[in-house]
Fold these 3 entries.
Entry 1:
Amino acid sequence: MNINVKKLNPDAKLPTGGHPGDAGIDFYAICEVVFAPHAQMRVPTGVAIEIPPGHVGLIWDKSSVSFNQGLKVMGGVIDAGYRGEIIMNLYNTTDREQRIPKGNKIAQMIIQKFEECAIVETQELSDTVRGEGREGSTGAN
C-alpha cells in the first residue's frame, strides 16, 4: 500500500518506517516544543497524508518518547477523509519540563483497515459468558 504525503512546510520530514515489517510510521516534530510539567501540547509535523478509503490512521506513542520522557499521546484517530496537517497531541506525565527538539520523532501511526457499521437500536443484546462483568470480572489475580 502506498500512502501519499504532502509537505506543508519545506523543513518537514516525511514519515518513515523503522524496520522492515514494523507496523508504525514515525512522524517528526517540525519545531521545538517545550512541555511544562503535566502540560498537554500539540506538536505539528508539517505534513498531511492521504489515508486510503476503508482505512484509519491510529496514533500511538513512540516507546522511546514515552519511556524516556514520559510524553504520552492523547487521542489519535485520523480518518481517511482528513487532509489537514497531522498534529500530535502529547501530555507530559512527569514533574519535569520535557523538550522535543525540531526534527525528533514524536509519535507513530498505524494504518489499519476497518469495517464501516450501521448503528441499530435494540431492546436486547445477545448473552455472553462475561455478561455485564467489568473490571475484575476474571478474578483478582
Entry 2:
Amino acid sequence: MTALDAKAHENRRQALYWRLLARLFDPEEHASLEAVSVAVVDALGLPAALLDPSVSVDALVQRFPELAADFDGLLSSAEATADGVPSAPGSGAEDGREQVRRAALVSKLLLNVFAAKPGNVTAAQLSEWQRDAGWLRRALGDDGGAGACGAPGAGDAGAGATGPGTGGTGRGVGTGNGLRPVLAEIEGDLVRRMQLREVLSDNRLARRLSPSMSLIEQLLRDKANLSGVALANAKALIRRFVDEVAEVLRTQVRQSSAGTIDRSVPPKRVYRNLDLERTIWKNLTNWSPEDERLYVDRLFYKHTAKRTTPAKMIVVVDQSGSMVDSMVNCTILASIFAGLPKVDVHLVAYDTRALDLTPWVHDPFEVLLRTTLGGGTDGTAAMALARPKVTDPRNTVVVWISDFYDNRALMTDFESLHRSGVKLIPVGSVNSSGQGMVDGWFRDRLKSLGTPVISGHIRKLVVELKTFLA
C-alpha cells in the first residue's frame, strides 16, 4: 500500500470519528460530515442504516445478518486498541480498509449507546437502548454473566440486555469497573424520564432493569402507588439491590480492623494462646551452654479476651429524600451487625415523626418497604424513641444518620448522650462517592464535642463500629 493510499484510509477513518463526536455532542446532522460518512460507508459495501442512530443494532442485524459476526468481539480481539482500531502488523491495502470498516462499526455502537435521547422516553426506547448496550458489551467480549451495568458498590452484578445483545466471545478488554457505572448512569437517566410503572408492569422489561441507587429511590418513593405485577417487580428489584449491597458490606465487615485487645483481662493459660517468641526471649537467661538447652521457668500467653457483655447499637436514620443513599447503606449495615453475636441492634427512622423498626432490623428489605422518603425533619422525635433504649451508656453506641438540617434543640440531646458515656457516631454521608451536604452549625458543634461527623466511604463507619464492639 502506497503512502497515498494509507493517507486516504486514515482520512476516511478520521471522518467517521469526527462525525461520531459531532453527533454525540449535537444530535443535529452536520451536512458535510454526513455526506463524507455516507460515501465512506457506501465504498465499504456497508448499509447506509449503519449511520442512522434511530436504527437499533438489533434491527440492523436482522436486516443484514452477516453483520452479527462483525459486531461480535469487535473491541475485544487481541489486535484491537482502545479506540477500536486494529494494530495488527502488515501494511497491505486490506489492513487500511479493515481499519475504516472497524471504525464504522465502532461508531455505530458508541453512537447508539452514548448519544443523548432528549425528551420523554418510552418503554420501547428503554428496551432498545438496553439491547444496544448489550451489543456493546458483546463487542467488548463480555461473557454475558452480568447486565449492562451493576448496582453501585455491588460490584458487577446486575441484569442487562438479553438475546443477541448478551453473551460474547474473545479474550476481550471487558467492561470492567469503568464502563458499567457509566451505563448504569445512562440507564438511570432513561428510567427517570419514562413512566416507571409502565416498565414494572412488563415482566420482560422489569427483569432487564439494573438495580441502582437512583432506581431504588424511585421505587421507594412510588411504592404506595404500585400494585399487582408492578409491585411484585418493584419488590424483586429492591431485594436484588439489597442482597448485592449486603454481600459487599459483609466483606468489608469481615476485612476491617476489629479494634484493640482488652488487656485488663488476664490471658487464658491454654496452649493455643502461648506466646512462643516472648517466652523464649524472657527465658534466655536460663540458657545452658553445657547442655545446649533453654530451661523455661515461666510461660507467657497472648491476650485474646473479647467483650462478654452484649453491646447495644442504636441506629437512627433520617428518611428524608436527601439521605436515601446513606439510609439504604446503613440500614443494610445495621442488619449485618444484628447478625453478629453479642450485639443488640435497634433501628429508628424519622422525619417529623419517628418509627421503631427494630422488629425488622434483621431484614433490610422489609425496613426499606416501611420507610417513607421525603417530608420534614425533626430529630427530637427520634431521640424520644432512642433515649429509653440506652440502659448501659458505656456499653452503647448511637449511630445518627442525617444531613443535620434539623431542629437545633437536638444538639442538647447529643451533648447529654455524650456526657452519659454513650459512644455517639454522627453520620452525614456514607456512600461510594463520599459526597454529601451537612449543616455547618451541627458539624462545628459536633466536632467541638469530640464526635465529628463521618462523611465518606462506608468503610469508615464499619471501622468505627468494629472498634467499639471489639
Entry 3:
Amino acid sequence: MPNSPTLLWFRQDLRLQDNPALCAAIARGGPVVPVYILDDQSEGRWVPGAASRWWLHHSLAALDAALRERGSRLVLARGEAVTELLAIARRTGAGAVVWNRRYEPAGAVRDIRARKDLAAAGLEVETFNGSLLHEPAEIANKQGGPFQVFTAYWRHCLTLPVEASRRLGPKEFFPPGSWPASAELGDLKLLPTRGWDAGFYETWKPGEASAAKALRKFVGEPMEAYVDRRNLPDVEGTSRLSAHLHFGELSPRQVWGAVQATARESGVFPPSKGAAVFLSEVGWREFAHHLLHHFPHTPEKPLREKFAAFAWAADPGGKKLRAWQLGATGYPIVDAGMRQLWHTGWMHNRVRMIVASFLVKHLRLSWTLGAEWFWDTLVDADLANNTLGWQWSAGCGADAAPYFRIFAPVLQGQKFDAAGNYVRRWVPELAQMPAKFIHAPWEAPEDVLVAAGVRLGDNYPRPVVDHATARVAALAAFRQLRPGARP
C-alpha cells in the first residue's frame, strides 16, 4: 500500500548514513518505523557473546538517540523476529518491511524464512546489501567456484566498481501518527550483571558518531604510517574500526569513500602504500564472508576435511586452556594479549595471531576452543572473521598458514614489542624487568629477577610448556596429516 508505514528492521546496520534499507524506507513516502528485535533463538549456536552484548546495548542507545534527534525513535522487542515484525505491522498498519541482509548461515536462513512469511502475510519485502562491498554469492573464480586464496580474491575485487555511500539529509524522516509499544533497552538484558566490563567504558564509545570520528582520525596520518606501525601492539597504529564495522555503525563503503577522498589531490587510488594495505584488511573481512557463505559448516568444522582427524593434546581439567584464557601461560607476550582482551574486549591483531598459534601449536588444543573464547570476550566478535582467523592459525582453512609455521612467542615479543612496553602495560608483575629479559623472564639471572620483584612460580608463572619441546611435538602431530612432508 503506497504511503502506508514501512518497518525498517535494524540488525547489524546500526547507523543512519549509507543505510540502503533506510533509504528505501524513506523512498516509499510513508511513515518509517525503525525496529530492533533481539532474537537469540534464531542465531543458532552463535548467539552473541557477553562482550558483543555490551557493545550492542550501547550501540542501540546511540542509534535511538540519533533517531530522536530526527523526530523518530527505535522500537525494541525481544522474541522470534518474524512473529514480532508481524505484530508490529498489525499495530501500525505497515505495508512493507525492509532490511539489510545478514550473511552468516543462521542469519541467511532466517532472512529467507522472514521474506517468505512476511510476504505471505501481505507485506511488501525488500532487502539490501548494507554490510559488504560485494555480495558473497556474486564473486566467483574463473571456474565459477569460490575463491580460497586471498590474493586472487582481492585482485579480482579490485577490478569491480564500489558503490558510493549514500548520505541521509537532516529532515527526511516521516514518523507514524502513533508509535507502537516498545520494550525498554534494559529489558533486553544485554549488560553483564557482574562488573567485569569497567575497562570497556575506558576504551570504547559505541555508536555511529564515534565510528565516523574514528574513521576521520585514522585516514589522516595513522593510515600513512600503517605499514610500519600496524604490527606494533604498544602504539595506536591500527584503525580500531572492527567493532564499528561488525555492528554496522560504519559501512565498508564509507571506509572506501574516506580513503578515496584522500586521493583527490593526487588522483592516485589507493593514495599510498599504507592506504592500500589498510584497504586489503577490509578485503580480508570481505574474503571471510565470502568463505563463510560458501562453506557454512566452517565455524564448527575445518575447511580442510583431513584436519578433522588431527590429534589434539589431552588437557586434564582444562588447566592449560584456563592458563591461556587467564593470561597465565608464563609467556609474557601471550599473557599480555589475553589480559588486554579480558580488560578491553579487544586485542591487537598481531597479538591475536601469536596467542592463537600458541593455543593450537604449543598447547595443541583445538582451534574451536579459541574461537569460542574469542566469541564471548571480543567486542568485535564476527563469525566470519573469527572463523577465518582461527582456521588460518590452525592451518585447516582457506589460505591458511602452513602447518610448520609456529610462532615463537619470545621472538615475536622481541620483534614487535622490543622495548617491552606492551607487556609492561598488561602484565604489571613484569613492569620492572629490563627489556633484555622481559619476553623470557626465566632466562634472567636471579639478581635481575629480585631487582624487578619477579618471583617465578609465585607472582608470575613459569612457562606452561617448553617452546622447543612443544614445537617438535606439534610438527610431529601435524606431519601425521601430511605423510612425507618436511618442515
